[in-house]
């Protein structure tokens, strides 16, 4: 089947967009991000969707956005950090070359800080990170064909590690 050359999953702030754009440039394909698809389709920011309609509504939009992008896109695709919470999304991902980017909790707190644009981290980010990672780690492991640690690596090094792990050649 056709579909994305690489699907990037992993927690918020791990660098899916930065690394995804690098991978797209190196492979000569385009980059797509399901968070950006949702913002474009809804005409509003994700934090506003969370506040106004709640997380459940956002997850329904996300599930549909991921399913559409997996069919339509043949470049590099990055998913929001919580896309793997949905079981049917995880089942769809089994068919695709999924790379999970990971970082440790201290690195996560440092990279994302108190980020208003990330509604799940608005209060007590360290505790929330720990809980998020504990609950999501098995889900990332379930969908990932390869897991790439990003601690102490530049975005270029992470992109190279993804290419190596998935045995993809540059254009
Ligand atoms: C979320 C991650 C965000 C965005 C939303 C929820 C999550 O995407 O989808 O704020 O549940 O981890 P990024 O991982 O692109 O920041």
From TrEMBL:
Record GO terms (molecular function): ATP binding; magnesium ion binding; shikimate kinase activity
Cofactor: Mg(2+)
Textual note on the cofactor: Binds 1 Mg(2+) ion per subunit.
Pathway listed: Metabolic intermediate biosynthesis; chorismate biosynthesis; chorismate from D-erythrose 4-phosphate and phosphoenolpyruvate: step 5/7
One Pfam family, short name: SKI
Catalytic activity of the protein: shikimate + ATP = 3-phosphoshikimate + ADP + H(+)
Enzyme class name: transferase
Superkingdom: Bacteria
Chief location bin: cytoplasm
Localization terms from the record: Cytoplasm
EC number, UniProt record: 2.7.1.71
Keyword Nucleotide-binding belongs to the record: yes
Function: Catalyzes the specific phosphorylation of the 3-hydroxyl group of shikimic acid using ATP as a cosubstrate.
Quaternary context: Monomer.
Family, as annotated: Belongs to the shikimate kinase family.
Entry protein name: Shikimate kinase
Organism per entry: Streptomyces venezuelae
